[in-house]
From TrEMBL:
Residues 38-218 form the Laminin G domain. It comes from Donacobius atricapilla. It comes from the Eukaryota. InterPro entries: ConA-like_dom_sf, Laminin_G, Neurexin-related_CASP. This is LAMA1 protein. Signal peptide: none annotated.
C-alpha cells in the first residue's frame, strides 16, 4: 500500500498509553476530522489537484461534468492550457460560473448568472456540465442551459498539452482560459470528462500533485 488512508483515526493507545493527537512532533497532509462526512473531495482554498501529468489533449470536443458545493463566490474549478493560447477553463467569479474556450483564434465565454449572487454558493450541491463541440460551447448548471455565439467558426481545436488543474493551479503555471487566481474552497465530486464514446472518471486520490486537497472526504459540518 503506497497511499494514505482517507479516514479519521482517534483514541489510539500504544502499550496502554494514549497518544497525544493535539501536539504531534510532525504533521503532513493531515486535516481535522468532521462529525458528518459526505462523498466528495475537500479543497481547503489554498491549493489544487493536478491530474494527467503527460498532458490532456482537449482538441475538437470534450464534455465535462462535475458537482460542486461551496460558500465562496470566487474559485477556479478546472483549467487545461497549452504553451500557446489554446486552453479551456471553468471558474466561479462573483457567484457566476464561466466556461472559457480558446481554440487559437480568441477566447469565448459561456456565462451562467444565477438570480442571486449567492444562490450557487449556498453550500449545497450543484451539477455542472460544460460542453465544447468544435467551435460551439455550452454550459448547463442544475439543468439550466447557457450557450454563446462564437465568431471564430473556422477554429475548432483546442490543442492543449498540459495537465488538468482542478481547484486552482501553481503560481508558475500559465492558464490562458482562467481569469481568477483564487483557489476553490469547498467540495467537488463525480468529475467526468467525455470524448466521443470514451468517458473517464477522475479519482482525486490518483492526482500526481495534491496541495490543500483531501480526497474522498467532504465535511458535512466541521467539528
Amino acid at each position: 500500500v503506497t497511499h494514505s488512508i482517507p479516514a479519521c483515526i482517534g483514541s489510539m493507545t500504544i502499550n496502554s498509553k494514549q497518544l497525544d493527537n493535539e501536539s504531534p512532533v510532525s504533521i503532513f497532509a493531515v486535516n481535522k476530522c468532521y462529525e458528518t462526512v459526505q462523498d466528495g473531495t475537500f479543497f481547503d482554498g489554498s491549493g489544487f489537484a493536478a491530474l494527467v501529468r503527460e498532458g490532456y489533449k482537449v482538441r475538437s470536443d470534450v464534455n465535462i461534468t462535475l458537482e460542486f458545493r461551496t460558500t465562496a463566490v470566487h474559485g477556479v474549478l478546472l483549467g487545461v492550457s497549452s504553451a500557446k493560447v489554446d486552453a479551456i477553463g471553468l471558474e466561479i467569479v462573483h457567484g457566476k460560473v464561466l466556461f472559457h474556450v480558446n481554440n487559437g483564434a480568441g477566447r469565448i465565454t459561456a456565462t451562467y448568472e444565477p438570480r442571486g449572487t449567492n444562490s450557487l454558493c449556498d453550500g449545497k450541491w450543484h451539477k455542472l456540465q460544460a460542453n465544447k463541440s468544435k467551435h460551439r460551447i455550452s454550459l448547463i448548471i442544475d439543468g439550466n442551459l447557457v450557450y454563446t455565439d462564437n465568431p471564430y467558426i473556422q477554429s475548432t481545436s483546442a490543442d492543449t498539452n498540459n495537465p488538468i488543474y482542478i481547484g486552482g493551479y501553481p503560481a508558475d503555471v500559465k492558464q490562458n482560459c482562467l481569469t481568477s487566481k483564487s483557489s476553490f474552497r469547498g467540495c467537488l465530486r463525480n468529475l467526468f470528462l467525455t470524448k466521443g464514446q470514451h468517458t473517464e472518471l477522475f479519482d482525486f486520490s490518483r492526482a500526481f500533485d495534491l496541495r490543500g486537497v483531501f480526497p474522498h472526504s467532504c465535511p458535512g459540518a466541521e467539528h
